[in-house]
Each structure stands twice: as C-alpha cells, then as structure tokens.
Amino acid sequence: PRSTLFPYTTLFRSMTALGNVNFRVVDERGPDHEKEFFVEVWLGKRKLAEAWGRSKKMAARAASEKALKYI
After folding, report:
1. Which of 65, 32, 1 is CA-nearest to residue 23?
2. What pTM was estimated for this model as a whole?
3. How far apart are CA 39 and CA 57, in angstroms?
4. The sheet that has 21-29: what strands, in order across it?
5. Tens-digit pLDDT profile for residues 18-44
6. In whole angstroms, what is the distance from residue 65 CA to residue 11 CA?
7. CA 43, CA 3: separation in Å to the nearest integer?
8. Could you tell me how many helices (H) and strands (E) the chain has, helices first?
9. Are 37 and 59 in contact (CB under 8 A)?
10. How far is the C-alpha of 3 from the C-alpha of 23, rounded, in Å?
C-alpha cells in the first residue's frame, strides 16, 4: 500500500537536496522465527534516527518516521 511508503518518500524528497540518505541495518536479535532488526537513518555523516522492528522494512519505516521529526 502507498501509506507504507509515505515515510520513505517524504524523507527522500525532503532530504535529497541536503545530502545522501542511507538506511543501515546495524543489529539483529532473537531466534530466526522472531527476529528483530535495528536500523539507523543517516544523512551524510550525521545519524538522524534509529529504531527496532520485526522486519528490516518495519525498522526502516519506524526510523524514517523518527527522522522526519528532525527535518
């Protein structure tokens, strides 16, 4: 659904002019059937936000929503 892409789209549109936006998976925990991922959002050399999620996509979405608060 489009609503799940909104945080990513808004983040990229808002920050593309400012620099390179990267999502980095920096940690994971739990057994394979209950894995959680820790993702950071970076703008150039500056970390904007981080979040845990049950999937890489959910963690990236949560981190991007946090990053939007700093724009």
Report:
1. 65
2. 0.75
3. 9
4. 21-29, 36-43, 46-53
5. 677 889 999 999 999 999 999 999 888
6. 8
7. 23
8. 2, 3
9. yes
10. 19
